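Researcher: I'd like a candidate sequence for this fold, 196 residues long. If you have to choose between options at a position, lean toward the conservative one.
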């Protein structure tokens, strides 16, 4: 599997470089900040985020972070929702301040991804402290399904949902699909999350 991911990484890197050549440096300079709104950029943006995802799969978080950060710089509205895997990569890479700054940057986003990530960061830094408990309570009030999916008490569906609503089971499924490995890597975090 690693060999396939490494090959995929090389192909995606070539795709990104090829798109950069076709679009040209002047195009990037002129359109940074509104990339996703321009149809010609979609292939580049998708290649860049797929490259980031592949780097993350290979545990190359520095390169994954660089790609996700670039995607958000080019498209600050973040129509592709790169902020969620970027937050995951920051936490995996022990860049907790950057994960907090990202949540602040997207303060309008009050969904499960940032709420549970912020609770996890507090647990990593403070353990079972009143401040981490407060963030946990906020996250759980928003979406009660996340802990059950992270712990395996509810099985993940075979197919990922295509749509979600804030606070619903589909949102929890998408969060767990991206973050279960992260939570399981932090000793005691899932037990803490499930504790009343």
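Model: Candidate sequence:
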């Amino acid at each position: 599997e690693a060999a396939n991911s490494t090959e995929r990484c090389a192909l995606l890197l070539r795709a990104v470089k090829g798109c950069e050549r076709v679009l040209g440096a002047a195009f990037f300079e002129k359109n940074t900040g509104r990339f996703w709104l321009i149809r010609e950029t979609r292939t580049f943006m998708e290649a860049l985020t797929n490259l980031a995802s592949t780097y993350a799969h290979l545990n190359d978080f520095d390169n994954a972070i660089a790609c996700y950060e670039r995607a958000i710089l080019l498209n600050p509205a973040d129509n592709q929702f790169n902020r969620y895997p970027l937050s995951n990569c920051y936490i995996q890479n022990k860049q907790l301040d950057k994960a907090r700054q990202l949540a602040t940057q997207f303060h309008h986003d009050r969904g499960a991804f940032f709420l549970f990530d912020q609770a996890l960061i507090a647990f990593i830094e403070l353990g079972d402290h009143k401040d981490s408990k407060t963030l946990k309570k906020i996250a759980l009030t928003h979406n009660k399904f996340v802990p059950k999916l992270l712990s395996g008490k509810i099985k993940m569906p075979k197919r990922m949902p295509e749509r979600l609503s804030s606070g619903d089971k589909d949102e929890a499924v998408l969060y767990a699909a991206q973050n279960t490995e992260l939570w399981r890597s932090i000793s005691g975090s899932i037990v803490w999350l499930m504790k009343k």
